[in-house]
Amino acid sequence: MNPKNTKRTWLRNGILLGVLSLLLIFVACNMNQSPTDGQTVQSATHVLDKVKASGKLKAGYIVYPPFVIKDPNSGHLSGYFIELMDAIAKEGAFSIDYEETNWGNMVTGLQTGKFDVVVSGIFATIPRAKEVTFTTPVLYVGISAIARKNDNRFTTVTDLAKKGLTIAVTNGEVGHEYAKKELLDAKLTVINTEDISRPMLEVVAGRADVALGDSMTAYRFAKQHPEVRNVFANNPFFVFGTSLMVRQNDPEWANFLNTSIEHMELSGVTDKLEAKYKEGSSAWISKRKPW
Q1: DSSP state of 228
Q2: For 178-234, how does the pLDDT look when each residue is reduced to its tens digit (9 = 90+)?
Q3: Which domains does the chain have, with CATH numbers?
Q4: How far is 27 from 32, CA to CA, in rounded Å?
Q5: Phi, psi of 209 (to 5 degrees)
Q6: Exposure string over 101-140, b if 16+ CB within 10 A, otherwise e
Q7: Is the model's pTM score more than 0.90?
Q8: How does residue 33 score in pLDDT terms, banded at 50, 70 and 90?
Q9: Could you tell me which of 113, 111, 46 has the C-alpha nearest to residue 252?
């Protein structure tokens, strides 16, 4: 063999081996990296495996009475969905580390692994379902409206579409999404707040004709403010399944939670929570057992 050809062959093979080694090192480093802000947790990360190994679960929550209640002095958490998750954790022999979030950051926090479930009772919507996964509904909450008690302009949902109305909504909340799509002739007062009842104060102050919000918040607000009425108390005009929110591409974790929710329903736990936290028949719609 020509020595020059042999030398070229060794050189070529050496370069190829070097490039291959660098590629292997790059892949290995990326496999070992932990997700940072803005990165989505890969589907290979299974929450149930982590919970079984560590005995702990990371849960995000948003203060949303009576689903999630936070004592302002002690920080102690209670509420329907907190007690539901605590009951699941007790049966599953793991503990929960709760971390507060908000409506705007809950999806990002879930996707980046800051927490593995959001437990505030989240409405399952199509836009949200493009980014996250929802468990089976625990109960159903609708959209209602708050108007002044002596204002009789509003009896059906079509009345909300009248021209010239000022409608107050919470930025990013389902009432806001509905108004943007269906109430195109309204002047929207969009308020950035974690308190869904805040836009309803615009009606009390006379700065808005009507405010949109979920049926549970509307019920509680009308009970506390006799000068307003809950327009759709007995017939919310849009109903959402309300459930837990988890990352996509982790069916084992979603299946575990679905099985746990069904167990809590059939064993009577959700009945006890409803008796404790449901303040009136129009606050939400309950699921019914087979018999």
Answers
A1: E
A2: 999 999 999 999 998 888 899 999 999 999 999 999 999 999 999 999 999 999 998
A3: 47-140+240-277 (3.40.190.10), 141-230 (3.40.190.10)
A4: 9
A5: -75, -35
A6: bebeebbebbbbbbbbbbbbbbbbeeebeeebbbbbbbbb
A7: no
A8: very low
A9: 46
